Amino acid sequence: MCGIVGYAGSGSAKEMILSGLNALKYRGYDSAGIALVRKGKLLVRKESGKLEALEAKVGGAEFDAPLGIGHTRWATHGAPTRENAHPHVSFDGRVAIVHNGIIENFMELKAELAQKHGIRFVSETDSEVIAHLIALYFEDDLAEAVRKAAKRMHGAYAVAAVSADDAERIVAIRKDAPLIAGLCGEGGLLASDIPALLKYTRDVYLIENDEIVIVTKDSVQIFDEELTRLNRTKTHIDWDAVAAERGGYEHFMMKEIHEQPTGIKETLRHRVDAKKELLLDDLAFTKEELDAVDRIYIVACGTASHAGLVGKPVIEKYARIPVEVDLSSEFRYRNPIVTEHTLVLAISQSGETSDTIEAIREAKRRGAKVLSVVNVKGSSIARESDHVFYSAAGPEIAVASTKAYTTQIVSLYLIALHMGRLRGTVSAADCKKLVEALEQTPALVEKVIKDEKRIRKLAKEHYKKEKIFFVGRGADVATAQEASLKLKEITYINSFAIAAGELKHGTIALITRNVFFFAVATQSYLYEKMLSNIEEMKARKAEIVAVVKEGDKRVKEIADEVFAIPDCGDEIAPIVAVVFFQLFAYHVAKLRGRDIDQPRNLAKSVTVE
Ligand code: M6R
């Protein structure tokens, strides 16, 4: 997704900006650009493709400047070409801007700018209108011009602007797109995301909606939308910068798979006392508040929505509140029945997923309270929620989500237990039982990881397959869906997940000799049913690898191959079984020579609709 970096100071702006943009590479991008202000001149360079191409373009000393802005773009409006890359420059060459988000009324603005002012557009982007608007309002104060331009823009934006005619400062504004600023020894910094600044400062200002920020070489000043100065405090970011690097693994994805035991332990840490009672101070809701809740909607996208599917029956079991799982992109448009008695539970690793942000806004407009499970501290979803439960996966860099998923499930289980204890629907003994089982989970995940050699062998046997199906029942349907998503996003193999009981309602027509299936059978109460489904597929000559719990004797009589996860309770199995599928997808992707950490067409956080 797009990234913004700005710098004003005594160091080299191009170096600081490129270093920040490099730190944001993991989010995915398809073009990059930089605008530098040097000796009364605006120097703009942009390239499609990788950052290295841009770096090569600005290598010379003529690009040494004290101030500038940079951008990595992930194409939405218009192809990933040099023309469409940011920064965009105004018609008169005075202003350069970078933008994350979408200007919804750009067509109207474009028509107005063309007809009234004769401005010729050089890109297909919505963002270009911003540069022209600012230039039209620009007399001698860039902040005033940005303020006026923002009043004309509808949509979501984090915009940073520079001009050689107001050469000492970067002016930025945000609405519904992340923006942060900070100071380091060599100057002032601005970025769309925390990792871009981590190397230089850990104390940042989180810019709020409609705020304008002015960054100079020795100050960060924040103003409201009328340019009245605000007094804001900094937030300390306690991420370990080293944790954001690969730590010796070939890919972030592999590193993050290995970090799951730690992520789970961290998610449990400080939330359980010695007696296995919960200490969830993060969730400050009262029994009365909870008793008033008559329905929970889980809203999330992709992997996070699969965590929701695993969490749903567990919340229902322990808290005895009906739960529906909705994709955020569907929920926000389908006129959901949401009242002040609804609790919306948003799940998001990044906390910046546009569809999920809009889903919670919709829910709030309708009077619901929002609880979110988020991994990134201070992210938009965290800030807009009434209650936040942080999963403690640590920074997840690979596009394919792994440790965020397993820690989201653990978070949902803790929330389910907490709700159940508050409402009196779960006994201390049952709560303790699940807590103890969760505490065993890191060791079980570790065991699957240790079986990597076998998983790699299995990947070798099957990596040339062009189609792979995944089936399961109960919580194993969610595991099948997550397994299928992991496989398709990083290997590009056509894959498909379905509840095994649904096969006979249509999909079974696809089963012929050697059609390849993973059958997940970890849920004891559905075991017999799953066995029949496996028989059903085998009778049609499908090739089947079954994923079961250790000790299983019957599946191996039917399936072609069996992978056993360590024996564990049904509720724990989804957290353990998915690790097998993460590793399988990883090794298949590697054998196929894929770009594992940055698969094509994908970005780490989807901040556009
Ligand atoms: O940051 P979020 O959890 O809100 O992201 C939601 C999805 O975009 C994300 O889970 C996506 O499906 C994964 N990258 C897939 O591995």
Question: Tags for this entry?
Answer:
single chain; 609 residues; alpha/beta; Rossmann fold; 3 domains; eight-stranded antiparallel sheet; 19 helices; globular; binds 5-amino-5-deoxy-1-O-phosphono-D-mannitol
CATH superfamily of the largest domain: Aminohydrolase, N-terminal nucleophile (Ntn) domain
Measured as a percent range, the helix fraction is: 25-40%
Count of DSSP strands = 25
Beta-strand percent range: 15-25%
Strand order of the largest sheet: 3-2-4-1-10-9-11-15
Shape: globular
End-to-end gap: 12 Å
Task: List each distinct ligand once.
Answer: 5-amino-5-deoxy-1-O-phosphono-D-mannitol
The oligomeric state is: single chain
Structural class by sheet pairing and helices: alpha/beta
The second-level CATH architecture of the largest domain is 4-Layer Sandwich
> How large is the radius of gyration?
26 Å
- Please identify the top-level CATH class of the largest domain: Alpha Beta
**What name is given to the CATH topology of the largest domain?**
Glutamine Phosphoribosylpyrophosphate, subunit 1, domain 1
Poorly predicted ranges: none
Give the mean pLDDT: 93
Task: Domain count, please report it.
Answer: 3
Q: Total number of helical segments?
A: 19
Q: State the major sheet.
A: 8 strands, antiparallel
